[in-house]
Design goal:
CATH class of the largest domain: Mainly Beta
Distance between the termini: 19 Å
Low-confidence stretches: none
Radius of gyration: 20 Å
Largest sheet: 6 strands, antiparallel
CATH superfamily of the largest domain: Probable inorganic polyphosphate/atp-NAD kinase, domain 2
Number of helices: 5
CATH architecture of the largest domain: Sandwich
Shape: elongated
Structural class: alpha+beta
Strand content: over 45%
Number of strands: 17
Helix content: 10-25%
């Protein structure tokens, strides 16, 4: 079985994990790996998934408490690798969300978002969800999250954790009616269309630095992606 360590941590820390993989009989290679160890925090996992989409991953925390049930500590990794070699594991899949503008597509595991380029200037836009329209929204932007991302930025904006669907949150809305219901959860079969009527904006996914510039008149389609993230969980 081919395995690879993806990390932004110091080389010596990564080398320690590579030695453990070799000790347990894995072939350490970045070429078509069967499993990838994402060694770091949430940002590392998002970057790892973007670079190796769909490849099963072991989420190894470099420090601190485990934040999700799928997280593995460095101390637990040897036991986890032994179980994987014996076939005592399962693959858990997580939904992604995608945003399409012209011929460009951004895919996020946590979320996609549209937000104002200038922090001193709010956007004006409309939101259409399967025909239902929210007109003339004034806000810093809008975020659409997956169940996996519902404990991230979506939560800090006032959204609650959810297990199914897509979470929509307005970023710092101006009108009281929008503040009262700034976040909602919709069926993941629904399509969300956002049209900007005023202001310059960025379209972004997760922690991807490759953002797309938007301006008045541009329209973005946001929907559940066909892609899945896959995480290894031992039995």
């Amino acid at each position: 079985m081919r395995a690879f360590v993806f990390s932004f941590l110091p080389k010596n820390d990564v080398k320690r994990l590579k030695k453990l993989l070799l000790k347990k009989g894995f072939i350490v290679s970045a070429y078509k790996p069967d499993i990838i160890i994402s060694f770091g925090g949430d940002g590392t996992f998002l970057s790892c998934e973007r670079n190796y989409p769909g490849v099963p991953k072991i989420l190894v925390r470099n420090a601190g408490e485990k934040t999700k049930e799928i997280d593995v500590s460095v101390e637990e990794l040897e036991r986890v690798l032994e179980k994987i070699k014996k076939g005592l594991y399962k693959i858990v899949e997580f939904d992604k969300v995608e945003a399409i503008y012209n011929n460009k597509k951004l895919v996020g595991l946590n979320e996609v978002q549209i937000r104002n380029k200038l922090p001193i200037e709010a956007l004006r836009f409309s939101v259409r969800i399967n025909g239902k329209i929210l007109e003339n929204v004034i806000a810093d932007g809008i975020l659409v999250a997956t169940p996996f991302g519902s404990t991230g930025y979506f939560s800090s904006m006032g959204g609650r954790k959810f297990k199914r669907g897509l979470g929509i949150c307005l970023n710092n809305p101006y009108f009281p009616r929008e503040k009262r219901r700034r976040c909602l959860i919709v069926d993941d079969k629904k399509k969300i269309q956002v049209k900007i009527s005023y202001g310059d904006a960025y379209l972004a996914a997760d922690n991807n630095r490759n953002v797309v510039s938007l301006r008045a008149g541009d329209e973005v389609l946001i929907r559940k992606s066909d892609e899945k993230a896959r995480v290894v969980v031992v039995k």
